[in-house]
Sequence to fold (299 residues):
Amino acid sequence: MKILDSEFQAWMGGVQARMETVLARLLPAANLAPARLHEAMRYATLEGGKRVRPLLAFAAGEISRAAPERLEIAAAAVELIHAYSLVHDDLPCMDDDTLRRGKPTVHVEYDEATALLVGDALQSLAFQLLSENRISDDPRVQLEMVKTLAVAAGSRGMAGGQQIDLEATGKTLSLPELEFMHIHKTGALIRAAVTLGSCCGALTEDQKQRLDHYAKAIGLAFQVVDDVLDCDASTATLGKTAGKDSKQGKPTYVSAMGLARARQMAEALRGEAHAALSDLGAPARRLAEVADFIVLRKF
Ligand code: IPE
Ligand code: IPE
Ligand code: MG
Ligand code: MG
Ligand code: MG
Fold:
């Protein structure tokens, strides 16, 4: 398997820096009324995070030769939903976390009600962006993209997965149940990032299916690695409190199969993601590298 090289690191840094600028421009100014809400939205979104979903959107856009100006919007929309999901995930009524991206969580820095509203407003902004910018030549495709993100964020996607997570806390899940939870709470948005990025350009049905297969594998791998790192990495490197899953009795791939087998599972999913790309040729290189990053990352 390929090791991440400096050329990839430079590409990744470029997308991350670009997204920082784009998100800073698209979010309401911190001094615009209601200033406390806008300041908290910026606090939740800017200066932090690996920007994995934007990386996936940009990498998928290479398959369809999508314009970067369109990819920025698609990537920002997915990242805003992701940022909202983190703010709500950290609330006392959910995972009750005080540290995120190396900073106090939004409800700690501001207050719970503001954190709720930050999530609401980030979600709305995501859909505003997808509707007010032209991101596909075909308006019907663009409408499909709006729907894709809506479904991925909703009760049959991320929010549904979060409900399953809450109900499963303190219990043991079977492997199929665990997979079902993970592909919803995390996989759905990862999959949407790949779909939205690729749909900014032109795609064949065959390419679409291969990309979706890739996205499903890497979406699950992402959460398996998140489970591994919770048990295996430090609070300092993660920027969020380590060891929370076992402390809270969350069923994870580590609790279900142990650290070593969970790592093997992530590795197998990386292989599956790579295999799905095999007929997509040279433009799939970035997606392969992002898959490597997702599985080999240490934070
Ligand atoms: C953490 O996501 C929450 C999960 C979905 C597992 P990330 O690991 O992508 O968080 P950031 O955006 O880099 O902070
Ligand atoms: C969070 O999963 C998934 C979403 C935010 C939708 P986790 O609860 O495992 O994420 P972390 O570990 O707090 O980042
Ligand atoms: Mg959670
Ligand atoms: Mg959490
Ligand atoms: Mg976690």
Summary: Residues 89, 95, 165 surround magnesium ion (ligand 3) (CB under 6 Å). The mean pLDDT is 97. The CA atoms of residues 88 and 203 lie 35 Å apart. The chain has one domain: 6-296.
